[in-house]
Amino acid sequence: MRSRRFLKIEHILRKQNMGFGFGFLVYLFASLLVLQRLEMTEAHGKNVEREVYNMISGRNYKDNHLRIHAGRDEYSGKRLHKLDPELNVFFYINELKVGKKMPIYFPIKDPSTSPPLLSREESDSIPFSLEKLPYILQLFSFPEGSKQAKAMKNTLRHCEFPPLEGETKFCSTSLEFMLDSVRSIFGFKSKFNVLTTNHLTKSIALLQNYTILEVPKEVLARKIVACHTLPYPYTVLYCHSQESDNKLFKVSLVGEDGGRVEAAAICHMDTSNWDPEHVSFRVLKTRPGASPVCHFFPADNLIWIPEV
After folding, report:
1. Strand order through the sheet with 192-195
2. How far lies 274's CA from each of 38, 109, 112, 233, 291, in Å?
3. How many CB atoms lie within 10 A of CB 21?
4. Residue 175 burial class via C-beta count within 10 angstroms: exposed 0-12, middle 13-18, buried 19 and up
5. How crowded is residue 57: how many other Cβ atoms within 10 Å of its Cβ?
6. Is the pLDDT of residue 74 over 90?
7. For range 202-230, the mean pLDDT
8. What is the DSSP-derived secondary structure letter of residue 239?
9. What is the pLDDT of residues 95-132, one digit of tens each?
């Protein structure tokens, strides 16, 4: 028997009339179940900031707009020498070959902690802005200064940051809004698909050595819209798209514990305009423009691509 959430999402997608078959609806729903795994903690807020800005956009914490939780000390050479587990996602493009072994961190969280997925009608009835934060905290019964309040404030700040040059960005508070926004980027008559990192079997270790099993498959896409979860009482996704020569890949992996992962990965081919203090350069021991920077996506990210 299908859950109420499944029936709700199926109904929404059918109304969107995107040309997807029922199998895709099942696939997207499975992705959304994985997507909604955020815990409302300040520590998780740091991980999200690191993931969204440091891994994806080329921004860095020394950017005044982004210095919210962590200072420069968090990414000191001493800290990076030991490597935070979450930083084990970066790699070189020449490492994408069969038999290559590398340590990778794939966060896996309990879906039972998922914040709810609201309909457009529900999300539109709730203010979503820094200006209205006191009212929002009162609405959800979170005291000012609490960890939850700080995480919500950071999410709203991220959503109100201006886009980078050449970037299109938005924060989605409902599935309908996300689909409409993706369609506006690709073209209103466009059909599109979603790519995610999928855990085919249960892995015990979050960080372990993985081996590439097959030749990585490049996914050709003229545009990419990547959506990342942010901590909030209900599901919020930070989505962005940028014209670039990035390369997207599907990578089949097996862990030391036998866990199988079909991972989504991206290689940023031109990093010449990235902040020299970007954490990826320190992890990979490189510099802006010297070589592509690649990273894996966690399972709670959605990567939208237009049909070829």
Report:
1. 167-172, 236-242, 225-230, 302-306, 192-195
2. 28, 31, 37, 32, 12
3. 8
4. buried
5. 22
6. no
7. 92
8. E
9. 999 999 999 999 876 667 778 889 999 999 999 999 99
